[in-house]
């Protein structure tokens, strides 16, 4: 479970391989606004996204205390920016309510708990075509 820009989010613990301090991020040109940049994770370059922007929520700004949750699924890695990692808790799938269709990014959510925790679908986020950027920069 983590917070970002006032929102509370969760990811399946089996998909989160590690949590790292957010530092030394290299911005990437010609990428969507939700892609913050690249971080080096022990020799592997992992791109980092801001989940709120990815889901289409208004930008809330970034605070100083950030972490990156490295998410892996089907051989693909992604860094998810978090203000604060608040802990680990068990949420049975049966306890998740479907995400309301009006909720921004509802297609990338597993559901919402009764207390407002938004549970993300990491496999859906990783397979989103917006993650692949195929654009050249002119000289």
Would you give an account of this structure?
- With 139 residues, this protein is mostly beta strands.
- The protein contains 2 helices and 10 strands, in the order βββββαβββββα.
- It has helices at 51-54, 122-126; strands spanning 2-4, 7-10, 16-21, 35-41, 44-49, 67-73, 76-82, 84-85, 109-112, 118-120.
- A 5-stranded mixed sheet has the order 8-1-2-10-9. A 5-stranded mixed sheet has the order 3-6-7-5-4.
- Strand 6 (67-73) and strand 7 (76-82) form a beta hairpin.
- The radius of gyration is 15 Å and the shape is globular.
- The mean pLDDT is 84.
Q: Can you tag this structure with a few keywords?
A:
2 helices; 139 residues; mainly beta
Please report the distance between the alpha carbons of the first and last residues.
Answer: 43 Å
* Unreliable stretches covering 5 or more consecutive residues: none
How many helical elements? 2
Give the neighbour order of strands across the main sheet.
Answer: 8-1-2-10-9
- Helical content stands at under 10%
The count of strands amounts to 10
The averaged pLDDT comes out at: 84
Pattern of helices and strands? EEEEEHEEEEEH
Shape: globular
Tell me about the largest β-sheet. 5 strands, mixed
β-strand percent reads 35-45%
Class based on secondary structure composition and strand pairing: mainly beta
Report the radius of gyration as a whole number of Å.
Answer: 15 Å
């Amino acid at each position: 479970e983590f917070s970002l820009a006032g929102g509370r989010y969760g990811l399946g613990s089996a998909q989160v391989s590690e949590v790292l301090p957010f530092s030394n991020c290299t911005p990437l040109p010609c990428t969507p606004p939700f892609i913050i940049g690249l971080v080096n994770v022990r020799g592997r370059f992992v791109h980092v996204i801001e989940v709120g922007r990815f889901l289409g929520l208004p930008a809330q700004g970034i605070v100083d205390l950030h972490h990156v949750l490295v998410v892996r699924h089907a051989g693909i890695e992604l860094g998810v920016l978090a203000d604060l990692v608040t802990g680990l808790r068990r949420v049975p799938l049966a306890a998740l309510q479907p995400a309301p269709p009006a909720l921004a990014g509802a297609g990338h959510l597993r559901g919402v708990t009764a207390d407002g925790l938004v549970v993300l679908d990491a496999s859906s986020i990783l397979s989103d075509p917006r993650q692949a950027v195929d654009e050249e920069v002119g000289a």
